[in-house]
Amino acid sequence: MLFTLSYKGRLGTRNAAIERFLKTGGSPPAGVKMIGRWHDLAGISGFSVAETNDPSLMAKWALDWNDLLEIDVRSVVTDELAGPLLASVGKT
Predict the structure, then answer these.
(1) Percent of the chain with pLDDT over 70
(2) CA proximity to 37, closest of 4, 70, 84, 62
(3) CA–CA gap between residue 61 and residue 12 (Å, rounded)
(4) Could you report the per-residue pLDDT of 9-26, keeping only the tens digit for each?
(5) Which of the four CATH numbers 2.170.150.70, 3.30.70.1060, 3.30.70.1350, 1.10.3210.10 does domain 2-87 have?
(6) Is the distance from CB of 14 to CB of 44 less than 8 angstroms?
(7) Sorting pLDDT into bands at 50, 70 and 90, what band is 90?
(8) Which of 15, 9, 22 has the alpha carbon at shortest distance from 65?
(9) pTM exceeding 0.90
(10) What is the full DSSP assignment across 23-74?
(11) Integer distance in angstroms from the first to the last C-alpha of the chain?
(12) 36 touches 74 (CB < 8 A)
């Protein structure tokens, strides 16, 4: 399963978030493959695309950071999966 994890810094946590990122690399837990990560450094925000078969691992990753960042985790699908699903909308 593919997921996006979006983050945004909370007021007053910038330096602590930077320190933790530099110390840990912000890596996901074992069992989650990070496909890519993009940052908006001016806004202390960004997102990651990750893959795992265990959604609870995405929750763990969010919990590792939600004391400093607002986190939003969503499941997503590729174009190849979306196409047939969209084509079936309204059909029974």
Answers:
(1) 99
(2) 4
(3) 21
(4) 999 999 999 999 999 999
(5) 3.30.70.1060
(6) yes
(7) confident
(8) 9
(9) no
(10) HHTTPPPTT-EEEEEEEETTTTEEEEEEE-S-HHHHHHHHHHHTTTEEEEEE
(11) 26
(12) no
Tokens 């969010």 correspond to what residue?
A: 62
Distance CA 64, CA 22 (A): 15
For residue 50, what pLDDT is reported?
98
CA distance 29 to 3: 14
Query: Residues, the chain, total?
Result: 92
In order of 27, 37, 63, 81, 83, the CA distances from 2 in angstroms are 16, 13, 18, 11, 16
How far is the C-alpha of 62 from the C-alpha of 41, rounded, in Å? 19
